[in-house]
Amino acid sequence: SNKTFKYTILIGLFVPMVLFILGAYNGVMQTLYRAGVLHEDSFGGINYYQGLTMHGVINAIILTTFFAVIFGHVTMGHYLKKQPPKWSYLGSIILMVFGSLLDVVLMAMGRAQALYTFYAPLKNSPFFYLGTSLLIVGSWLAFFGWIVIYREWRQENPDKKMPIAVLGTFVNFTMWFVASLPVAYESLVILMPWSAGWISDINVPLTRMLFWMFGHPLVYFWLLPAYIAFYTVLPKVSGGKLYSGNAARLAFLLFLILSTPVGVHHQFSEPVLGQDTKLWVTVLTFGVSIPSFMTAFTVGASLEYAGRKNGARGLLGWMGRLPWFLSKNYLFGYFICGLLLFIFGGLSGIVNASYSLNQMVHNTGWVPGHFHMTVAGPVLLVILGMSIYMYSKVAGKPIKMLSVVTIVPYVWMVGVALLSHGLMAGGLMGEPRRTNLGLSYTDPSSDMFNKHWVPTTTVTMIGGILMGTAALLYFIAFFSTALSKQTEASEIVLPESEELHEEKRIGILHNMRPWIAVSIMLTMITYVPSLINVFKYSKPVENKFDATSPVNEMKDATTKNAATTIMNVEDEKV
Ligand code: HAS
Ligand code: HEM
Q1: Which fold, 2-569?
Q2: Which of 14, 211, 372, 391 is catalytic?
Q3: pTM (two decimals)
Q4: Catalytic position from the list 305, 371, 389, 478
Q5: How many angstroms is it from 423 CA to the middle of ligand 2?
Q6: ipTM > 0.95 for the complex
Q7: How far is CA 40 from CA 32, 115, 222, 330, 496, in A?
Q8: Does residue 89 have its Cβ closer than 6 Å to ligand 2?
């Protein structure tokens, strides 16, 4: 019934937010290890890689997937005025909650610490792969339910345009569905039997390739809900209209063709893949930046329109006439702070994508610097803003501590800017990612100590503490709201922006099929040669990888990072 559906939405917002407390905590701990405030292998019963795995899996896989599904439910409820069939939303939430809790328990027990990019040779408990698969299959069920109600809606409304938010959601879940096939194969057919001990040999590059075939569309699966909010909610809350609906539709459809074939850009250093494929993927990755450049333009134009409508004059006056810090329009702050961060998140992504420049930044702090301005920027800020909005509307509970809720995104933005600046500046000096620097490079008593990395890791830590503070404030407001008494009618609604121009209905922007066909073609062009190479140059072998801390092996001064040596030589010259 209506009530069960609403409870599903509330559970789907509440559960991941509780888990996010653990996710955020482990993020702050990362910055303390990096800055050498901690010189330990573990803290509070959680070891370094266990904490890093919890951080990545909870924040980037669990929280984001729940949000995409729940935002999708509310979008369908608002635009189609329908709710999905019970088997779909109930089945979906049960699988997702069960799968996530299974993963969290295993991570807490130390049975899963192979990081959120869970490819071989690192190994988790077989149940981790099961848990993650349940989470993913749960999200599919929600999608299948939306297809059912969309078909009904289409029959009842044969002449209406498909609402932009609905198109965005369908594009996103189509891409997600296609992308989860390789990871399902990797998890269920390769990794699970291997970690259960049923097979002993494993083709490591194959698991990496299958993971990234999923892993890159994954980042756009995180991003597109935020884009849906920027196109369909932001113009309304900033006091204007969406500049062009057709441009928005085109941007979503371009993601559909370009997201899946670019996963190889995470593998520029993978020896078994060919240089021709890598170059081709650089070009495609520049291509997938185009819909984001278009978004910058369309959303920027919509903001300018809003500013002018709010009374702005001159060339840049519109920027001042936007509802900054206005608690009535608190969502604006979440969106604009995300957008501002994303300018730099996007630019750093283009650096990563450039095949030759990638050699400089790969596996350094630069990479987490890049992605905290994307996934912990626009993506997370839209998750936070829209989660409290949807919770408050669906539960019929007015938001508590509204002024705190209004300030949070600005504190978070400054925090991310500092965190990412520190990581990227350090990254350009060779600071590695995924390394407990506190046991080595930022421990003055270690012979690997590198004083050049102290200022950068300190800036990272200050940023991390600010982010942690913003998260804490948000949690207090969110849970005070969620645990308060219902005082208003419960409703499934979203702020809905109008389009500025009455635009022509362009057929190709309303039909996903040709775009899916092009996507399959581009994916084949990338992945057929990649697969051939993987099987040509690598075969399943027994895994000899030893996952004990590499720091113990690196005490020998000759293995010091090359960058350290170069900088020390520079020092001597001075
Ligand atoms: Fe990325 C690595 C390339 C976007 C996430 N990326 C990662 C990893 C993650 C991630 C998690 O090519 C690490 C994975 C791991 O653990 O190893 N990325 C790109 C490119 C883009 C990009 C080209 N990434 C994202 C998004 C993510 C994300 C989005 C999450 C949501 N990324 C890479 C590459 C690597 C990589 C390589 C591998 C690196 C390595 O070596 O390991 C593009 O999609 C970016 C396009 C974006 C733009 C920005 C548009 C700006 C907008 C804001 C406008 C502002 C306005 C406000 C309107 C072109 C839309 C104005 C208002 C005023 C008041 C002024
Ligand atoms: C990794 C800090 C929030 C996603 C990291 C790292 C740091 C960090 C320092 C790098 C670890 C390393 O490679 O040495 C923080 C802090 C946060 C925060 C202080 C705020 C409380 C988030 C959010 C997301 C996120 C909101 C996503 C929604 C990730 C991911 C990794 C990561 C995916 C990579 C994990 C890996 O390498 O396996 N975080 N982060 N973080 N963070 Fe965050």
Answers
A1: Cytochrome C Oxidase; Chain A (1.20.210)
A2: 372
A3: 0.95
A4: 371
A5: 11
A6: yes
A7: 10, 19, 33, 41, 50
A8: no
